[in-house]
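subagent[fold] <- orchestrator: predict structure for attached chain, return tokens only, no commentary.
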Amino acid sequence: MPLSQFKALHSYLDQMIIGQPQLTQALLIAMIADGHLLVEGPPGLAKTRAINALANGIDGNFQRIQFTPDLLPADLTGSDIYRNETGQFSFEPGPLFHNLILADEINRAPAKVQSALLEAMAEGQVTVGKQSYKLDDLFLVMATQNPLENEGTYPLPEAQLDRFLMHLSLDYPSAETELQILRLARNEDLKQQTATVEAISQEQVFSARKQALELYLAPSLEGYIVDLINATRQPQKYCDELASYLECGVSPRATLALERCARARAWLNGQDFVSPEDIQAVLPDVLRHRLITTYHSEAEGVSKEAIINKILSLVAVP
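subagent[fold] -> orchestrator:
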């Protein structure tokens, strides 16, 4: 049964990445919902460790790409290499031809590199010259951004942000949690026994995706999802204050992402139906990077989280 193995994987991730339950759950939701993650937070919050631990629990391969201003698209996609022995060009695959990708500090790469990653995320393929090459069906990108530095960065365009299923915002752990991290790191340095998990096959991941899509979603909750999204497009119907905070609404991709994430969360919790709580729980991560706020909201210091909470309070739950 895939669910029991996913619960074991979730427990393993929580043991390996202490104090970041939001991140470990989001990784599993993204994998089941067949989407990509954008993670923002200060350095040292186990972002690399998290996706590496996920790779240990999945029958797939992992690749980390450090994004820098001098990176070229071919550094991601691969390139055609001339072979002297044959007198012909052959394609040498790049790091994107792995199942799990960590795009570290994605906003440090120029637009051409970001567009190559965008094609991989959106189309499941890369194009080199006139030839396109399909990526594996199991393909998950976790991109990171450092909010503390803005110099030498290239902000992601709205179209690329929209391609990410969810956007997580991480913060420093509590003192108690950091003490646990300290002990875990010491035990690992001493080569003491750490948590292990049986790897989940790619077929089991695809089976989990199918089961999540088959969960019952009441028509009234489908309407609830659409109403939440429409509240970002027509905020004046709900509240003048909300309208003053939003410059424009989110795209239909947000609607699809909200449903898929709610389904994945419900499935991971062992439910056979999607509840309003599932939709409400994933809404902040689905909307955080898609909302375009006004200067008025920034001047008043109104955060996107506050705007999302306002939407949740205004839209009636069926």
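orchestrator: received. Logging for downstream: The CA atoms of residues 42 and 146 lie 6 Å apart. The chain has two domains: 2-171, 215-314.
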